[in-house]
Amino acid sequence: MAGGQLKFLDWYLKIAAVSALIGASMELFMIHTGFYDKVTALESEKLAWESSAEAQALREARNPWRRLDEEKK
């Protein structure tokens, strides 16, 4: 390898190392602040609500012709 290519390879390795360090820091921050626990709770609440009768009624109200579309298929 030529000297110029080696210099650029060093630069890319430094950028990769700094990027990995920043990503790891962000992950640790999210773990220590309870971010993933909050997201899991919100997702489970969302799934529970989406399967409720109220959510079904809202879906029907938004698109009353949906059954007609399904029957055609």
UniProtKB/TrEMBL annotation:
Entry keyword set = Membrane, Transmembrane, Transmembrane helix
So where does this one cross the membrane?
Answer: 12-31
Highest taxon of the lineage: Eukaryota
Record's PANTHER family?
DNA MISMATCH REPAIR PROTEIN (PTHR36377)
Protein name in UniProt = Uncharacterized protein
Q: Which organism is it from?
A: Platanthera zijinensis
